[in-house]
Specification:
The chain contains 8 helices and no strands. By secondary structure, the protein is mainly alpha-helical.
C-alpha cells in the first residue's frame, strides 16, 4: 500500500475504537506498513502528538467562560421559544399583507382579460370569482385572528 493510503487510514480511524473488523484489519495494515516505512512512523508520531496537544493543551479549561456561554445559549433558546409562541410576524406585517391581497383581488377585475372573459361567459363567471375572493379574504382573516388571539384580546380588552 502507498503511504498516502496508510496515512488516510490513520486519519480516518484515529477517533474510532478498533473493535470492528475493518478497524482491526486497518490497524494491522498500518502496523505492517510502519515496519518498513520510517517516514510514515514519523508522520504518525507527529499526528498523534499534534492531536494530543490540540485535545488537552491547546485550549485551557475555563469554567467561567463555559458558564457564560451556556447562559447566553439558554437565553437565546427562551427568546426563540417566546418568539414562536407569540407569533413571529407582527400585526403590522399581517395588515400590510392583507391590504396587498385585498387590493390585488379588487383590481383583478379591471384587467382587459378579465373583462373579455366576463363578457364571453356572462354573469355565471362573476359568481365563482366573488366566492373565491370571499374565501381568500375570510381565510386570511381567520388565520390572522387565530394566530394573534392573545394580542388582540389584550388590545381590545376581551
Amino acid at each position: 500500500m502507498s503511504c498516502s493510503k496508510i496515512m488516510d487510514m490513520v486519519y480516518e480511524y484515529s477517533d474510532e475504537p478498533h473493535v470492528t473488523a475493518a478497524g482491526v484489519i486497518n490497524q494491522i495494515l498500518i502496523w505492517l506498513h510502519t515496519l518498513v516505512c520510517q517516514d510514515c512512523v514519523r508522520e504518525i508520531k507527529k499526528y498523534e502528538e499534534s492531536r494530543r496537544i490540540l485535545m488537552k493543551d491547546f485550549f485551557p479549561p475555563s469554567p467561567e467562560l463555559e458558564d457564560t456561554i451556556m447562559a447566553v445559549i439558554a437565553a437565546e433558546e427562551k427568546q426563540t421559544e417566546a418568539d414562536l409562541t407569540s407569533g413571529v410576524l407582527s400585526i403590522r406585517g399581517w395588515v400590510i399583507a392583507g391590504l396587498i391581497i385585498l387590493i390585488s383581488l379588487a383590481t383583478a377585475s379591471f384587467s382587459l382579460d378579465f373583462k373579455k372573459l366576463a363578457l364571453e361567459t356572462g354573469m355565471s363567471f362573476l359568481l365563482p370569482v366573488g366566492i373565491t375572493v370571499g374565501i381568500v379574504l375570510t381565510s386570511y382573516c381567520a388565520i390572522f385572528i387565530g394566530s394573534h388571539l392573545d394580542e388582540l384580546s389584550e388590545r381590545f380588552g376581551l
